[in-house]
Task: inverse folding
């Protein structure tokens, strides 16, 4: 038995919106055998644009029962049946959420008439309920009302059952099918052809634009995990509705996938990615010339389009670095903003210090230049050589003078002992501190995979 459900709501996600009307058609696989319909008081205002679409006003639902008063009838009517709807995850998320609030735990198999329509009746110009019904000659005198849409969906479902010569409905209901959990507009074949490999995957909208980029140790498993559960939140429901296609890039290792994800998010700026869009280390070491001509070092927050000598994870890390440079090269703590009071300079030069104007500009600036050069020389140049996408290649990431250069794949037999030669086989990419840090952390954990260049 099937419970064909349609609802009208105050908004697009269950956790912050109410149901204003629900209609259920019980279908025995041949015809509708029972019907249920009621207005519902959502106990909140119905937005004007929703009323304009559905015709349901605040006055109409004022005397209607709240959902908790009809929850028992709804639960017992659909319990043990297969939940069917047009874009089923939307209706199911609302009904399940509000039943749970009333104390009922709904756990049903689902069928989506959008997905079934694409499989059983391929090639139609649109699979929205209104256009699909017009194309198939299914009447609906009460569009955007629960009873009218439920009856139209029931008639559509009967047609789909009668046209299902290849057993798509039976296949979708198999326990391991996962068909019913997929977004309505995402073809199952897109998910079936995903590899069990590390890599980066892309969700695309109806126009092919990338709306989300993710990384994975196992692409197929990670993509499938996006569709499990019934999170009723606005972002998730909108996200699922907008997924029309998934593509991917296989990577040799999870590290390559981490780096590529960060690069692609910066390049594509996908709508539903939040993290990594603005990640930058907060503090940096800068050098500038003051009015007297002395070169001064300072730790400050990162500024766009500025020349950075060194990046720091925190202000404390920056001060620790400056203190080491002051001690090693005899720099002035006042000119480095470490000593900020008016007391005599605590630097090695004391009263002969540059801050007192005694040490010449040329002599002091030479010490600062020596410190900067030593700092840059200490930045390593190395490659991380690791597993490739196939058995006859290796993945390779190059860090040059402490900065991420790029990555790619090289032959299993390639002798990577020359930086310039190695660059010919790698693709340069824009780097950032996030990429630099994850590559550096990986190198620390797996020093045997490093190729260090002098």
Result:
């Amino acid at each position: 038995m099937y419970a064909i459900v349609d609802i009208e709501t105050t908004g697009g996600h269950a956790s912050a919106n109410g149901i204003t009307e629900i209609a259920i058609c019980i279908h025995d696989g041949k015809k509708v055998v029972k019907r249920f319909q009621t207005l519902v008081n959502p106990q909140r205002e119905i937005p004007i644009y929703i009323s304009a679409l559905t015709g349901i006003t605040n006055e109409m639902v004022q005397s209607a029962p709240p959902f908790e008063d009809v929850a028992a009838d709804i639960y017992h009517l659909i319990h043990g049946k297969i939940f069917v709807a047009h874009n089923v995850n939307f209706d199911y998320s609302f009904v399940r959420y509000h039943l749970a609030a009333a104390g009922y735990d709904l756990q049903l198999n689902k069928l989506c008439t959008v997905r079934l329509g694409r499989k059983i009746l391929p090639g139609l110009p649109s699979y929205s309920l209104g256009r699909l019904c017009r194309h198939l000659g299914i009447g609906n005198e009460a569009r955007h009302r629960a009873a009218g849409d439920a009856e139209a969906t029931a008639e559509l479902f009967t047609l789909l059952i009668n046209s299902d010569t290849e057993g798509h409905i039976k296949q979708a209901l198999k326990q391991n099918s996962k068909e019913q959990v997929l977004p309505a507009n995402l073809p199952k074949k897109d998910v079936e052809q995903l590899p069990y490999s590390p890599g980066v995957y892309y969700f695309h909208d109806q126009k092919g634009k990338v709306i989300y980029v993710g990384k994975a140790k196992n692409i197929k498993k990670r993509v499938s995990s996006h569709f499990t559960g019934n999170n009723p939140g606005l972002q998730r429901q909108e996200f699922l509705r907008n997924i029309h296609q998934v593509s991917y890039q296989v990577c040799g290792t999870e590290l390559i996938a981490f780096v590529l994800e960060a690069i692609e998010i910066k390049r594509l700026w996908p709508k539903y990615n939040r993290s990594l869009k603005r990640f930058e280390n907060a503090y940096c070491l800068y050098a500038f010339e003051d009015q007297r001509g002395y070169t001064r070092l300072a730790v400050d927050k990162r500024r766009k389009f500025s020349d950075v000598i060194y990046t720091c994870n925190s202000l404390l890390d920056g001060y620790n670095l400056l203190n080491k440079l002051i001690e090693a090269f005899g720099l002035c703590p006042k000119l480095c903003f470490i000593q900020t009071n008016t007391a005599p300079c605590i630097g090695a030069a004391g009263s002969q210090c540059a801050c007192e104007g005694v040490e010449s500009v040329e002599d002091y600036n030479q010490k600062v230049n020596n410190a900067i050069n030593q700092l840059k020389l200490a930045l390593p140049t190395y490659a991380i050589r690791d597993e490739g996408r196939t058995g006859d290649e290796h993945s390779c990431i190059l860090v040059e003078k402490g900065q991420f250069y790029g990555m790619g794949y090289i032959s299993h037999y390639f002798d990577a002992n020359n930086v310039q030669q190695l660059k010919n086989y790698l693709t340069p990419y824009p780097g950032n501190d996030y990429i630099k840090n994850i590559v550096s952390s990986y190198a620390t954990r797996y020093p045997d995979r490093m190729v260090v260049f002098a």
User: Anything to note?
Assistant: The chain is about 35% helix and 20% strand. The mean pLDDT is 88. Residues 2 and 409 are 53 Å apart (CA to CA).
